[in-house]
Amino acid sequence: MGIFDLAEQLKSPYREVFERAQIYSTIENIPDQEAEEALLNLYDLLFTAQEEGKPILKLVGPDMGVFFKHYFEERKIGQKLANWPEVIYFLVRNLLILEAIFLVGDLIAGQVTANEDIYFYLVGIFLSLLTIPLGHLTYYSLLRIGKLRTSVFYPIVLAIFLFLLSLFLWVNPALPIMVPRYWVMGMGVLYLVAYKIYNLYKNQKRFGQWQNPNRRANKEFLTSTKKNSQYLRMKNEFYKTMARRYKKWEMKGKKSEAYFLREEKWMGRDKMLLKWGLFLVPLVSLPFAIPVFLSDPLQDALIFLAIEWIFVGLIVLGIQKLISFGLPARQEILKEMKHYKENLATFFHEKQ
């Protein structure tokens, strides 16, 4: 029985608590596997309380948000330690992609080496594994118990990571760890395949089938909830940013309608960049490509031009993605501002 089927077995108000827990796990970006385990355990608690007629207030207390925060946090450290195979899977996958890029570059340059130094790969994997429990233990002790602000917590975790990285760089052995290149890539592929087989076995044992029946429904639910929550956060940030800009604008003695027209103009510019941005790639690359074509062989110049187009194109696509992500919220805000364009101070005061 899937998580969405479990919700149907609960009655109000136990069902509302379970559904709110699903939303909380999505908004707080709790990993899918961790959230699923926590929700299954929560279902057992709620179903038992429902059968025994236990009041919901005795189970979750007066503040549902505080209950969810404590409930999910208490599972984070142990669950993260148990998820090391998954962490290694993503690390190995990303390192294989990086190694494949290096290999293609060496093949193009004709400088393929038989062996390579894997010291820094091992350091990267070890540090990633080590900082998971350290980070969560620090989170638990400083934020949960010590009531420390998150603005102090994250620099502390970053300092721990940089200290460990500096330590490993300082003790870098004089003799590198040389291993046959294709052997390393083969071991990485072998681990990825073994992890996938392990997941299939785990699903078969847990659900009686090779695939997780909740995966598609969970993904759709998580996607829609994240999209809505991100949109609301984005819209709120735009409100704050525009309010600060307008305050500076007003202090300069400029008119309210002029500010509105400027925001409209900026949005029109961003729409134009979103539509025609990729056509800028050849124009931006042209000043750098012409000297190369004049001085280098045609084959080398074409390779340089292709690499430059890919690099500049990725930058433009990134900018376009950022614009498209925030554009709907900006359009809605400007639509609301239009009715107040002659007195935007009132508009921002009401929104605040």
Which SSEs are present, and which pair or pack?
Layout: H1 3-8, H2 14-27, H3 32-52, H4 56-60, H5 64-73, H6 76-82, H7 84-109, E1 115-117, H8 119-145, H9 150-170, E2 178-180, H10 181-207, H11 215-251, H12 256-276, H13 280-295, H14 298-337, H15 344-351
Antiparallel strand pairs: 1-2
Written overview of the protein:
Helix 7 runs antiparallel to helix 8, helix 11 (215-251) crosses helix 15 and helix 12 (256-276) packs antiparallel against helix 14 (298-337). The chain has 15 helices and 2 strands. With 352 residues, it is mainly alpha-helical. It has a two-stranded antiparallel sheet. The chain is 81% helix and 2% strand. The mean pLDDT is 77.
Radius of gyration over C-alpha positions, nearest whole angstrom: 27 Å
Structural class comes to: mainly alpha
| Largest sheet entry | 2 strands, antiparallel
Q: Poorly predicted ranges (pLDDT <50, ≥5 residues)? A: none
* SSE series: HHHHHHHEHHEHHHHHH
Cα distance spanning the termini = 45 Å
Percent of residues in helices comes to over 70%
Number of strands: 2
Number of helices: 15
Q: Which band does the percent of strand residues land in?
A: under 5%
Mean pLDDT: 77
Q: Widest sheet: strand order?
A: 1-2
**Shape type:** flat
Compose a concise summary of this entry:
With about 350 residues, the chain is mainly α. Helix content is about 80%, strand content about 0%. The chain has a two-stranded antiparallel ribbon.
